[in-house]
Each structure stands twice: as structure tokens, then as C-alpha cells.
Amino acid sequence: MTLKEAINEHADTLVRATAAGGFIRCVAAVTTNTAAEAARRHQTTHTVSAALGRTLTGALLLGAGQKEFDRLTVRIEGDGPVGSITVESNKFGQVRGYAREPRADELLNGDGSYLLNEQGKFSVRSIIGEGMLHVSYESGFDIGLHREPYRGSVPLQTGELGEDFAYYLAKSEQIPSAVSLGVLVRARESGETFVEAAGGVMVQVMPGADERVVAAIESSIGKNLSTTNLIREGARPVDLLRAALSDIQFEVLEERVVGFACTCSYERAASLISSIDAVELEAMLREDKGASLTCHFCNETYRIDEPTLAEMVEKNRSVVCE
Ligand code: ZN
């Protein structure tokens, strides 16, 4: 899909820009489809849809601020009912992720009610609790380099995630940053989750930036920026930047398509199952008449049918005999 087609079809996009002579770097993304796809695939309850959507968006923003990496992993680990959230993105703007307890709201309140925060939004911190934000960047796979990944971890500050990403950037990557992440979740009459809008903005201040510019950005990106309201009204990433930077002029460097995508496939699932030893495979064949494997990241289930599994047993058995 070209960028133009993507925009016409309301696909998710991300924009990278600079301002103040390169001293300000900014990224904005509209991720409504990405967050909705994750919620649909994992059948998440409302607050988990918001938490997962924010983490997916945060990973896309972080990745866009990096020059070279193959895989970026963001892991939120808290003591709340959602357990953990794991998200991976790559330099092509593809992202995938899951929550350990996709229906954490039900664990929090047995009566099916939801905790709302001061702004009347689903309280993401109530399902995440206290814990850590871990980030790692891996690079060099495709040219056979097995470099140690770059890793950074910070304690969660609020558990609402936007501020936690900002804290990570300031502490671990030493870049003062403002990060706003939003997912507007609604409940259908059936009780099902519906992501109406999602997106985020990241503004980073490079060393030597004019203090007055920094102060102006801080005041405009603060409490006044309602990312999801703007997106619901049809805002694109450039409009989010305009709102975040108010009077400050910026120059767009790149706009690209982003979205939920997983690297799993039937072939990979089959290859994993075929590596199980023959005795265990035989038990699966006898008891389940096949085997199935579900991908954590996208919740897709791959079913290996009886004849294919029988073939695998034969192959593994002959390996043992040789
Ligand atoms: Zn998958």
C-alpha cells in the first residue's frame, strides 16, 4: 500500500519531524487500527485494550526515534491484575503485542465494573500496578552480528504509561522528552470493547535547545493535549504535532504507514511442533488427533492435522533409530 492509499483508507500512519533548528525531535502517530486489531485478536477487556494500545503506540514512537535496530521490545511488568504487557516493533513500523491477562478487568472487579481515573477514563494504572518498564533494542541479525542488545529499565512512575515512557527516555536514554499516549475505548451494548481512537506524540529536546522553546512546548503538550479527541475528529499525525507544538514551526522528515503485524506462520508453527520428541508427538496424535499451537503475540492458532502429525512422528522416530 502506498502512503497515499493508506491515508485514503484511514490506515495508521506515523510522522517524524524536527523543530527549532533540529534541537527538537518529534514523532506523532495515529494508531486506531493497530490498537483495535490488538483488542480484537486478544479479546481484551476495556482497560486492557487501553493499556495494550498505549504500549503498542509507545513502542512505535520509541522505534521511530531510533536510527538502527531490528527489534525493539517493550515490557511492562507490574503487580496489578494484567501481569505484564509485551510489545515488539521493528524499523518498518510493524508492531505486535499481548497482555498476560487479557481480561484483567474481570479479575479486578468480580462484578464487571470498571475503575475510572480522575479524567473519567479507564484507569490503566489500576490493572498495571507498581513495577518496571523494560526496553531493549536488538540489531545486526540480518547481517549475522549477534550483538548484545541495548537494554534499559526504569521503575514505573504512574502506570498510566505516557509518563512512564517519558521517564524511561529521560533516565535511560538521557533525552528529556514529553510523551502523550491515548486510547479511547468504548463499550458496545454487547459489552464488547471498541477502540474509537488511538495515537500518541513524543517530543524530545536535544542538548543545547533554547530554554524558551522548551518552556513553550511543555506548556502546550501538558494537560491541554487530548490526542484521542483530536483523532476522533479526524486529526492526522501532523495535526497532532501542530497541537503539541502550538506556535512552533516544524519540518516533516518522513511519514510512513504503521500497523499490527505478526511474524508467525503455519510453517513456523509446524516446524516448532516437529521438533518435539517422537514419544510426546505420539501422545498428541493418540489423544488429540493432531496438535495446535497459539502465537502469544497475535493469538492466531495453527492446527496440525492428523496425517501431518503422523508424518512428523515417523520422521522423528527414524531420527531416533539412526
Ligand atoms: Zn503471531
Keywords, separated by commas or semicolons:
322 residues, alpha+beta, Hsp33 domain, CBS domain Like, 2 domains, six-stranded mixed β-sheet, five-stranded antiparallel β-sheet, 28% strand, binds zinc ion
Q: Could you please describe the fold and organization of this structure?
A:
The structure is a single chain. The chain is an alpha+beta fold and 322 residues long. It folds into 2 domains: 3-260, Hsp33 domain, CATH 3.55.30; 266-321, Alpha-Beta Complex (CBS domain Like), CATH 3.90.1280. The protein is 37% helix and 28% strand. It is built from 12 helices and 13 strands. It has a 6-stranded mixed sheet with strand order 7-6-3-4-5-11, covered by helices on one side. The protein starts with a helix and ends with a helix. The structure holds zinc ion (ZN). The site of zinc ion has 6 residues, from loops.
TL;DR?
By secondary structure, the chain is of the alpha+beta class. 37% of the residues lie in helices and 28% in strands.
What's the average pLDDT?
A: 89
Strand content: 25-35%
Question: What ligands does this structure carry?
Answer: zinc ion
CATH class of the largest domain: Alpha Beta
CATH architecture annotation name of the largest domain:
3-Layer(bab) Sandwich
Q: What summary fits the major beta sheet? A: 6 strands, mixed
- Strand arrangement, largest sheet? 7-6-3-4-5-11
Distance between the termini: 50 Å
> Which series of helices and strands comes N to C?
HEEHHEEEHHEEHEEHHHEEHHEEH
How many domains, in number, for the residues? 2
Determine the structural class based on helices, strands and strand pairing: alpha+beta
**Shape from CA axes?**
globular
Oligomer: single chain
| CATH fold-level label of the largest domain | Hsp33 domain
The unreliable regions are none
Radius of gyration: 22 Å
